[in-house]
Structure formats: structure tokens, C-alpha cells
Amino acid sequence: MCRDAKSTMVVNVEHQLRLLSALTELVTKSESVDATLHEALRLMSEYLCMMRGAVTLISPKNGEIRIEAAYGLKPSEARRGRYAVGEGITGRVIESGRPMFISRVSQEPRFLNRTRSRNLGKEDVSFICVPIILQDQVVGAISVDRLLADEATLAEEMRLLTIISTILSHVALERQEHMDDESAHTPRPRGFVGSCEAMRLVYEQIALVSPSSTTVLLQGESGTGKELAARAIHAASDHADGPFVSVNCAALPENLIESELFGYERGAFTGATAMRKGRFEQADGGTLFLDEIGELSLLTQAKLLRVLQECAFERLGGVGTIHVNTRFITATNRDLESMVAAGVFRRDLFYRLNVFPIVMPPLRFRQEDILPLAHHFATRFAQRNGRGVVRLSLAVMEMLQRYTWPGNIRELENVMERALLLVGREGLVLPQHLPQALRGIQGACEKQADTVAARQWRIGTLQEQMDELERVAIVEALEASHGHVGKSAESLGMTERILALRMKKYGISYKSFREEHRIR
User: Fold this and answer.
1) Beta strand 327-332 with 356-359: parallel, antiparallel or unpaired?
2) What percentage of the chain reaches a pLDDT higher than 70?
3) Do residues 215 and 84 share a domain?
4) Alpha-carbon separation of residue 76 from 113, 114, 115, 153, 185 (angstroms)
5) CA angle at residue 134 from 128 to 140, to 5 degrees?
6) Domain check: are 354 and 370 in the same one?
7) Which residues, other chains included, contact 196 with Cβ-Cβ below 8 Å and sequence gap of 6+?
8) Which of 21, 37, 260, 405 lies 20 to 30 angstroms, CA to CA, from 11?
9) φ and ψ at residue 100, rounded to 5 degrees
10) Can you give the pTM of this predicted structure?
11) Is residue 183 part of a domain?
12) Are residues 342 and 399 both part of a single domain?
């Protein structure tokens, strides 16, 4: 514990040992990387004279240094903690791999105060920064703001922080490997699977537009998840407590579209024996999702434009104007701009709809998301049918990644549902469980299905079958440990090095299992 401010502020040996013991126990028992780093900083604040602390790591993707865990900093301040290598004290420590301390930050021109968490005109502090080094590689740094102290005290605490950085080095490395897996500031909306660059942009756009009442136009091929995006926007909006009403404009006959959208009064037409609310009225206080908006006739488009502009309409056969408080989200798989040019879609309506467009990428542009999606659907259908764990064979994974998926995610979902009905007791999805369209991409050996070579390819040689069993065992161990290589190696009775070689052989990455665990 820190002594009175008038004393030398030296942390005694007993307190140092208690802190190191607590940190070692934390690293040993904790399963969450983020929680471990934050709790480590909290423990340091108890035993040291620490006012603020941060763990900064180097992004593997772009080399940027940024704060990944902080104590005593507001979230906005932590987000500002970004540096280039060699920039400021933190950047210099990471560049050189050598610790530094600053007795008075207000008198140090190299000190940037990038987070703007310190009022250097009123507050003067000492600053200590030590690198986090693992296997001769600098992965980041630990920095501490503390009450003013003399150089002897700072040197002693710098040595203590160096020991702490060694204890936390493996945790820091693990966190570094996932720094760019997902945007830390843009969580994936519920129901979505995948973290490719194109989908990260979609998540950012959803997070940006959801709190507003802006009209959204979702564009993309059929089966790319436009309705899922619409529901995510609704769930994160001020209308979340209201209804979500979905209308497929392409599924409604032309003579019923107006009555479905606007409703009707009793006696408005033959068969109208009672008043009926339309979809606009049903969605009052919530969100109305108009899918396949490009299928509406020009007459209906004109009436829709008025509703979007004034949030008012009349029921068929009615004379009173009805006002609604509704959030509008529309979607289409057609090129509306080309339709405007061709005169089959109103230009003014297009501009009214295209306030905030979001493009949903086709599955063929999301190669790295195909297997996580396939595992997600396999798990869902297995649970729905009361089955145990179902795995994908290596050949199946190759087929899924090589296929172009014209039907996008909807097609992949249907393929996995079919496969789960055909898979045997072993719980392993094999090529014969997939549709012919997917099996047809495997090359010349399948064009001659009646040849011995083709039969051998489908059945597999003894070595191929043994390799597949080994791969399945590794996958099962990684699934059980949520991607923890050490625990997986122990359960399989092999060393981490041997397991890493086997994983490389089969193209297995532990990261996909950790991602899969987060999806669930």
C-alpha cells in the first residue's frame, strides 16, 4: 500500500511480493484475456501509488500502438491513446524495448498527454513506462501515472513493473492476436456471424444509423441478410420497444398492396365487412420494413412517397388522415438507379429512400466467414434435432470455401440443414451429404463417378481416413477448450509443439474456435 504523500512513497518488499503473488494467481486462473488485463491494473492501483495505468499493444494489422486496457481513464480518453512506433514516451519505449520514467511530465517535451486525461497546469505527476517483451519481441507496454516521486523510488518501481510485464506477457500476446479480429468499438449485432472487413463496415454503419430515425435502404443480393440487418437496426433504435412489421412487396398481388399497406374501412370494397389496419398503422411506434421495394408499381410508389414525407395516410374508403410515428427501413436486390433511368422507379422516391444506404456483401466476397457460418448452422440444426456435436470433414470445408454461393447465406443454411439430416452416427459431415452442385466443383475425378479413382476419392485411402480421424480429434479438443492450444494438447496427450504442427498440416486455426465460442 502507498504511504503518506510526504514520505518517500517507496513500496516495501512485502507489498511487492503480495502484488506479484496476486498477479500470478490472476493469470493462472482467469479465462478472459480482457478481464485479466483490467483486473491486473486494478490490483496495481491497490499496491502502488498509481493514479492511472494502461496496457498498450501493437496492432498486428497496421502496427499502430493503442490502449487495450486502462485504469483511471474514461472510455473516451482511452480511445485517444493511439501512437505510432517511436512517438511519445510510450512509442519510444516500444521502439527501443527499454523502460523509461519521467520525474515530472509537465517538464518533459516528449510527453504528449495524448489521452488528455491530465491537466498539466494543475496536476503534476511522475510517469513510468516499461515494454512487454515475449521471446525477444516487443508486443506492447505498461504505463503508470503516479504521485511525484524521486528518481530512486521511480527506478525501484520501474524494476517492479518490468517483472509485472513479464507475468502479463502471455496474456498481452493473446490479446494482441485478437486486436483486429473485431472492431472493439463496434460490437457485432445479435444474430450476425462473421468478422470479415466487409461485414465490419456493415456493423459500423448499423451502429451509426440505429439511434437516429433516418430512413435506411439495404441493398444486396437475395439471401445476404437484409432483414437480419433491419431487425438489428430496429433493436438498437429508440423504436425497439415498438413492433417490427415486415412486408415483402414482391409477394403481394398488385390489387392487394394498397389495402395491405394502408388498411381499409368497412364497405370500402366488396368483402370489406370490417375495418382493418394496414401495415403502416400496425407499425406505429415501431419499425416498418419494406422488402423488395423495387417491385412496387409507379402508382403505389407515389402514395408511398407521401407517407415517407409526411408520416400520414388515409385508409382505403376513409376520409380521415392517420398520422404515425414509424421508422422506415427498405430493402432491394435490384439496381434502383438503373430503374430510375429506365423510368420504372420514381426518382423522388429513390432519393427519399436512399438517405442512408447499406450494402450487404454477397457470401462469395466473405470467404473467411464461410466456415464460421457453416459451423454456426450445423450447431443450430444439431441442437434443434437433439443431436450431439456435428463436425465438418476436411473435404467438405474445402468444397464450401470453393463454391460461389449464388444463393448466399440462405443457400448455405439450406445446405447445412440438408447435410444434418443425412449425416450418420459419427456426426461427421462428408462430401456425399452435400448437394451435387457443391460436389461437382471438385474436378475431373468426379466427372467420371463410376471410375475406381472416383470411388477411392469418395471413400478415401486408409491414410486419408486416419488423417481425417486425427483432424476430427483435434477439432473436438479445440472446441472443448474454446481454442486454448495448451489445454487441447494436454487432453490429446501431446505437446503444444506437436499439436501446432498437426494444426498447420490440416489448416486448423485456434482463432476460429474462439470466434465460434463468441458467436454462441
Assistant:
1) unpaired
2) 88
3) no
4) 14, 11, 8, 31, 11
5) 40
6) no
7) 361, 366, 367, 368, 369
8) 37
9) -145, 155
10) 0.54
11) no
12) no
